[in-house]
Amino acid sequence: MSVARARVPALARGISSTAPRCKKVGAPDKKDRERIRQEQDKANKDRANSARLARARGDDWVDSGYQPQMGRIILDRKRGRHRFPDPVATPPKPFNGRLPGWDRLKDFGTEHLEIGKPTFFPTGPKDPIPIFGVPRSLENDFRLLGKPASVTRQCTLDIVEFLKSLKEEKPRAEHRIITGSNGSGKSYTLLQAVHRAAQEGWIVVYVPRALDLVKNVSDYIYDRRTRTFFQPQASREILQRIVDGNALLRRTLSGNTYKMAEAGIQESSTAPEALQAVLTNLGQQTTTPVLIAVDEVQALYSTSWYKDPYFKDIEACHLSVPRLLLEFASGRKELQRGAFLGAYTTTNTHFPLPLVLLEAADAELEKPAGPWDPRPEHLKAYISKDLKGFHLHNRGAISDKEAIGMYELWQLAQAVPASNTERTFMNAYMSSSGNPRAFIMDGLLRAMEV
User: Fold this and answer.
1) Biased composition, Basic and acidic residues: where in the chain (predicted)?
2) φ/ψ (deg, to 5) at 416
3) β-pairing, 173-179 with 388-391?
4) What is the DSSP string of 373-419?
5) Strand 290-295 relative to strand 338-343: parallel, antiparallel, unpaired?
6) CA-based nearest residue to 107, from 145, 152, 166, 144
7) What's the pLDDT score for residue 8?
């Protein structure tokens, strides 16, 4: 009787007694739990493979735990709700491979370059890699190898000859974009050019991760005078790396400009103006060649993740650092002696390649473009009339000598099995169609999976 009376009010209000309970606010649903579980399984598998490689090399393996990518939602089991990771990326750990075979490799800068010959990048305190860093894809490769290394290719010889002609001939400026398919080695070629230029007395300005300049991971403030958004922290970091990575900078710059650079490093609020003054002074002088190298260059021509006061996306050309790099890429700012080199990535769908950049560099398009495809006018203003594409040899496909060199390099890292070497090599080479990334990741490393 009492039970029936208790149910009457609920039924009278139209509420079923068997209705499901309301979901707790902030609690992850089934799809979120499944996605988090898949991410954890993938991270555990990658960590196990890295540990196996480290034990094979004799390295000390340190398990850093499960760390999702920046921007992913993490499940906080203690509090039972979602939390977001710290947007500040942790600094990369140094490369410390200890393999007996590394003694046979020569320095990339001092060794005579020969196609198919593996060489290692120096990592001294004044070398480009410890100061400027490397792109994300190359960082993953170097962690598996245990040491930054590469193989000399035909495109390596071409870009070294290109830099040599700029240094020895009459002072002039060149604007080039390294073109090629996905995984063809554009970032490797750009890094080789940076190392070669640094060891031949160039002043190098290297930005390996241009996407970080537009991903809203640093502070920004609107400047009424220039009508742009200043990026004090990003400007200070780039300025610090330019000063640390170039020993010739003090005698190349004028006294007041160098003092301004030091002031910008000490006080981040003055860093944007100091960075602009330093690069402008470097572009106007003709005593020392200057190389401005930007990887992930399509980020400069995209819409950033920064927001204006009306919560609208800010164009990258309205941010101080991307705009400064674009002015050198387009020739708006003078570069009397040197070159602007860029390389793009096709794997990031959030920042796609603009069609105007591909057409200006005469790059091979993945699909035909018609007159109805978007070609923003404000992007055309930041593309130099003298822009040319630095096309990788044979569209980036590796030759048999280059493939053998890559195989030898990854054998030194003990990342490929010692048995069935000929079969492993041929299977990887034929299935990849000569693509370097597919040859390594989908071919050689796939053979070691248990």
Assistant:
1) 26-49
2) -120, 150
3) parallel
4) S---HHHHTTS-TT-EEEEPGGGG---HHHHHHHHHHHHHTT-S-SS
5) parallel
6) 152
7) 41
Half-sphere exposure of 215 (CA within 13 A, CB side): 15
DSSP letter string over 330-344? HTSS--SSEEEEEE-
- Domain membership of residue 26 (yes or no) is no
Q: Per the structure, how many domains does the chain have?
A: 1
> Domain range spanning residue 336?
168-366
**pLDDT value at position 449?**
60
| Cα distance between residue 415 and residue 104, in whole Å | 17
Measured over the CA atoms of residue 419, residue 422, residue 423 and residue 429, the dihedral's sign is positive
> Looking at residue 88, what is its pLDDT?
36
pLDDT at 425: 86
Q: Answer whether 119's CB lies under 8 Å from 107's CB.
A: yes
The predicted structure's pLDDT at residue 129: 93
pLDDT for 392-439, tens place per residue? Answer: 877 778 999 999 999 988 888 877 766 667 888 888 888 888 899 999
So what's the pLDDT on residue 4?
45
- Element (H or E) spanning 390, and its range? strand 388-391
Please count the other Cβ atoms lying within 10 Å of the Cβ belonging to residue 198.
Answer: 23
pLDDT tens-digit series, residues 288-304: 999 999 999 999 999 99
Helix (H), strand (E) at residue 304 = strand 303-307
In a domain, 305, yes or no: yes
Parts of the chain with a pLDDT under 50 = 1-26, 59-94, 450
Counting beta carbons within 10 angstroms of the beta carbon of residue 244, is it exposed (0 to 12), middle (13 to 18) or buried (19 or more)? middle
Predicted pLDDT at 89:
37
> Shortest CA distance to 120 belongs to which of 143, 103, 137, 134?
103
131 inside domain: no
8 Å CB contact between 129 and 148: yes
**Within the chain, how many helices (H) and strands (E) appear?**
16, 14
Alpha-carbon span 114 to 126, nearest angstrom: 25
What are the angstrom distances between the C-alpha of 295 and each of 113, 194, 211, 301, 343? 23, 11, 9, 13, 5
- Rounded to two decimals, what is the model's pTM? 0.78
CATH number, domain containing residue 208? 3.40.50
Residue 27 lies in a domain: no
Q: Are 275 and 230 in contact (CB under 8 A)?
A: no
